[in-house]
Design a protein that fits this description.
This protein is α/β, with parallel strands linked by helices. It has two domains: about 1-375, Luciferase-like domain (TIM Barrel, Alpha-Beta Barrel), CATH 3.20.20.30; about 390-419, no CATH class. The chain has helices at about 20-35, 60-70, 90-100, 115-120, 130-145, 185-190, 200-220, 240-250, 255-265, 275-285, 300-315, 330-345, 345-350, 355-375, 405-410; strands at about 1-5, 40-45, 75-80, 105-110, 155, 160, 175-180, 190-195, 230-240, 300, 320-325. Strands 1-2-3-4-7-8-9-11 form an eight-stranded parallel beta barrel, surrounded by seven helices. Strands 5-6 form a two-stranded antiparallel ribbon. Strand 8, helix 7 (about 200-220) and strand 9 (about 230-240) form a beta-alpha-beta unit. The protein is globular, with a radius of gyration of 24 Å. The model has no long low-confidence stretch (mean pLDDT about 95).
Length: about 425
């Protein structure tokens, strides 16, 4: 089983000057440490306008810094918001491909449609059609990354003419695809499932079984490859003293508290006017305790965390994503927890992983082959059109004097006599 880390970049309000700058610096330091410790992947969300839930509004801006500071850890968008009102599909294809080049082919392309009113209304995304918009954009983004040139497209939610979208990604035909939180949508479209809800071992087993059953029977890949994997999120903090781990993990309750404001029935928030930490502290003790009898919260001493993770491994989960940073969890506590995990727990879950992956590949090979045959491939244009320039530029050389310039230079700028 593999392990990833979940980065919301969460900072409860109110803030003091420099808190946000400090948090971004600490996040990059944490990713560097994770890479040195051998963690498999890191996942950065894309959220907008969720004041105290997430500052990761532009992961495409900070993930290149993470890539430049690391060598092996997979760089995951978890997720990129794809309905075209958020960003034109070609821009997303360019961003993902550029990050894949910068990271030497380490990108995991997590995708989604967004769910919060705060985000959807601000970008003009219709909640009733966001799923269709998401699927349309995703299919074409994959075509843009894989085809030279991209033939062009006329759709319901966006259109564009034939263009060669560059750069192409380092991973061919494109990075592995994932979708947030929907095992059925993931399996039907040949994507990995990012299970961002914390569930029990039994619930994880049900999701895994549904995913692989649907993949075998109904999959029509939306991309050019199939990524048959399922990941699950778990709350995480480990310390040799169980009571210390549980006390520190009280900060992680803030994650659920902030989710409730933006996503759950009855939740409400005032943009730029929240005092979330004080409000959270008033209700913190009424929120169910994490860890202890919760079999999917990896919180406690090393032996307790092993048991929590083993339940997910036995359910068939391919990757556990550790939700480690929340509330006002001190950076040092986070690093100590991850170091203890890597030193005393992680290795035993790696034993036999190569054999597991090979057995899985052989088991799924017929299903994936059948899925690829069901896909309707976009046809390449028979004749690539010329695109004639508009014939004007913002800089008009004729408005300036170029004293002393050679005749050839003046002719090139359209200033001198033509030969």
């Amino acid at each position: 089983m593999k392990f990833g880390l979940f980065y919301e970049i969460q900072l409860p309000t109110p803030w003091s000057d420099g808190d946000d700058t400090r948090l971004f610096r600490e996040t990059l330091e944490h990713v560097e440490l994770a890479d040195r410790l051998g963690i498999d992947a890191m996942w950065a969300v894309e959220h907008h306008f969720l004041d105290d839930h997430s500052l990761s509004a532009a992961p495409e801006s900070w993930l290149p810094a993470a890539a430049a500071r690391t060598r092996n850890i997979r760089i995951g968008h978890g997720i990129a918001c794809l309905p075209p009102a958020f960003s034109h599909p070609a821009r997303i294809a360019e961003r993902i491909s550029t990050l894949d080049q910068v990271s030497a082919g380490r990108v995991e392309f997590g995708t989604g449609e967004s769910a919060s009113r705060m985000e959807l209304e601000a970008y003009g995304v219709d909640p009733k059609t966001k799923r269709q918009a998401y699927l349309e954009a995703l299919e074409q983004i994959c075509n843009m990354m894989a085809m030279s040139p991209y033939p062009g497209y006329k759709g319901e939610f966006f259109s564009m003419p034939c263009r060669n979208v560059v750069p192409k990604p380092a991973q061919k035909p494109h990075p592995p695809l994932w979708v947030a939180g929907k095992p059925d949508v993931a399996a039907k479209n040949g994507m990995g499932c990012l299970g961002f809800s914390v569930v029990s071992g039994d619930m994880a087993k049900a999701a895994v079984d549904q995913y692989y059953d649907t993949l075998a029977r109904e999959c029509v890949p939306i991309g050019h490859i199939v990524n048959a994997n399922i990941a699950m999120l778990t709350n995480f903090h480990v310390h040799r003293d169980e009571l210390v781990a549980r006390e520190r993990a009280e900060h992680l309750k803030f994650f659920g508290y902030s989710v409730s404001k933006y996503y759950l029935p009855g939740g409400k928030a005032r943009p730029g006017r929240e005092q979330a930490w004080d409000a959270f502290m008033k209700v913190k003790d009424s929120i169910p305790q994490l860890g202890a009898d919760n079999p999917t919260s990896a919180i406690g001493n090393p032996e307790q965390v092993r048991r929590h993770l083993r339940a997910l491994q036995n359910a068939g989960v391919d990757q556990v994503i550790l939700m480690h940073q929340g509330g006002r969890m001190p950076h040092d506590w986070n690093c100590e927890s991850m170091e203890l995990f890597a030193r005393e727990i992680m290795a035993e879950f790696r034993d036999g992983d190569e054999h597991r992956l090979e057995a899985k590949r052989k088991r799924l090979e017929p299903a994936i082959e059948a899925a690829m045959k069901r896909k309707a491939w976009m046809k390449q244009v028979e004749e690539v059109p010329f695109v004639e320039s508009y014939g004007n530029v913002s800089f008009n050389a004729k408005n300036y004097e170029f004293k002393g310039a050679s005749d050839s230079t003046q002719r090139a700028l359209g200033l001198g006599p033509k030969s």
